[in-house]
């Protein structure tokens, strides 16, 4: 089954929020993650698809059928909420079997299907327990099993992992993607967590102020954002205003930056994007050259080299994220190297030129 939004618009009476002329399609078996800041419209998109509201313009189609006027309970969509929404007085097995009971599936069959669903989420022995005796992660697994037990046309996930701690979120991300792939079901997952989106999605839809800014695979969204709004929201970013002075140079507060600017007119105002992991440390721990001196790795090639003062130096476990003050500006870098950093280099190939 596929999901399609055709020029969908919805505005709230307050005039704030909503969606404006959204068009996108989710294919069978695809996991689309929708991201954006608070109030961007991502939850509105989910509510319109679920049938809690109707679009004021445009169409929403499931399997090619316009679902305008179809009630929420008849859209045949599996939904997992942030709050889990489990019935506290029912056992885990009864919770999972409940959608089948509503569809008048015989008792023996619904119990068997519910037990199979429990096994798929790794809770085969929890069927007789009440939801209140489970951890948050276990309750989320039950909610996922309940959403899929009746084989819905599509799966909707409304920030389902936001209430879990960091370690458990990682495990649940892997479980959700595994089960979603096995079910081969079109899925829309709304989240504010960029790492979650990048690690789970087949494609990501970035929504801002009700408009779809970019729809792309995770690597493309991260490496080639369409503008500074996307670049700043997805991951960490150095964003430098500048002006094109030649096909290979952009003038900035840090000086002339070597990069590929041939697609831009001379004099055009632009913004340069450099991801922190592309900022390479110049190191020489003991004065004898034993550190990996990055400027020597590509002799003869143009390189952007900066010397400055290291200020913030954040140890994050596998990496460190540091700020190098250069003149009146700051360059943020990220590296696994733990020695002394005396400066940084940036390859022209790692500089992206974006609209100002």
UniProtKB/TrEMBL annotation:
Organism: Thalassospira alkalitolerans
Keyword Glycosyltransferase belongs to the record: no
GO BP annotations, alphabetical order: quaternary ammonium group transport
Limits of the ABC transporter domain: 3-234
Coiled coil stretches, renumbered: none
Protein name: ABC transporter ATP-binding protein
Keyword flag Magnesium: no
Residue ranges of the region described as Disordered: 281-305
GO molecular function, a single term: ATP hydrolysis activity
InterPro entries for the chain: AAA+_ATPase, ABC_SmlMolc_Importer, ABC_transporter-like_ATP-bd, ABC_transporter-like_CS, Mo/tungstate-bd_C_term_dom, P-loop_NTPase
UniProt KW keywords: ATP-binding, Nucleotide-binding, Transport
Domain of life from the UniProt record: Bacteria
PANTHER family recorded: SPERMIDINE/PUTRESCINE IMPORT ATP-BINDING PROTEIN POTA, SPERMIDINE_PUTRESCINE IMPORT ATP-BINDING PROTEIN POTA
């Amino acid at each position: 089954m596929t999901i399609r939004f055709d020029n969908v618009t919805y505005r709230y009476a307050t005039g704030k929020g909503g969606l404006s002329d959204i068009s996108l399609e989710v294919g069978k078996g695809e996991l689309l993650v929708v991201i954006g800041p608070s109030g961007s419209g991502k939850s509105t998109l989910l509510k319109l698809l679920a049938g809690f509201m109707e679009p004021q313009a445009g169409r929403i189609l499931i399997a090619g059928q316009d679902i305008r006027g179809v009630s929420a309970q008849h859209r045949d969509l599996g939904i997992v909420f942030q709050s889990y929404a489990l019935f506290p007085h029912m056992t885990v097995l009864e919770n999972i079997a409940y959608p089948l009971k509503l569809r008048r599936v015989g008792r023996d069959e619904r119990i068997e299907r519910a037990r199979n669903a429990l096994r798929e989420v790794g809770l085969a022995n929890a069927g007789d327990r009440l939801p209140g005796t489970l951890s948050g992660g276990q309750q989320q697994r039950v909610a996922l099993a309940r959403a899929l037990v009746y084989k819905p046309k599509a799966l909707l996930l409304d920030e389902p992992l936001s209430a879990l701690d960091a370690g458990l979120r990682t495990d649940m991300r892997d479980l959700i993607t595994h089960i979603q792939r096995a079910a081969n079901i079109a899925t829309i997952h709304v989240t504010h967590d960029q790492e979650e989106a990048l690690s789970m999605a087949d494609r990501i839809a970035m929504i801002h102020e009700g408009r779809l800014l970019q729809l792309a695979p995770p690597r493309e969204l991260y490496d080639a954002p369409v503008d500074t709004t996307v670049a700043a929201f997805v991951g960490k970013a150095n964003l430098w205003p500048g002006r094109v002075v030649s096909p290979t140079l952009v003038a900035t507060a840090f000086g002339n930056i070597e990069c590929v600017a041939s697609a831009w007119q001379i004099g055009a105002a632009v913004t340069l994007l450099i991801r922190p992991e592309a900022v390479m440390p110049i190191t020489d721990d003991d004065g004898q050259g034993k550190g990996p001196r990055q400027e020597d790795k590509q002799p003869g090639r143009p390189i952007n080299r900066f010397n400055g003062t290291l200020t913030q130096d954040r140890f994050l476990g596998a990496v460190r994220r540091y700020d190098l003050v250069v003149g009146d500006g700051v360059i943020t870098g990220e590296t696994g190297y733990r020695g002394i950093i005396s400066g940084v280099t940036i390859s022209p190939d790692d500089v992206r030129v974006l609209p100002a």
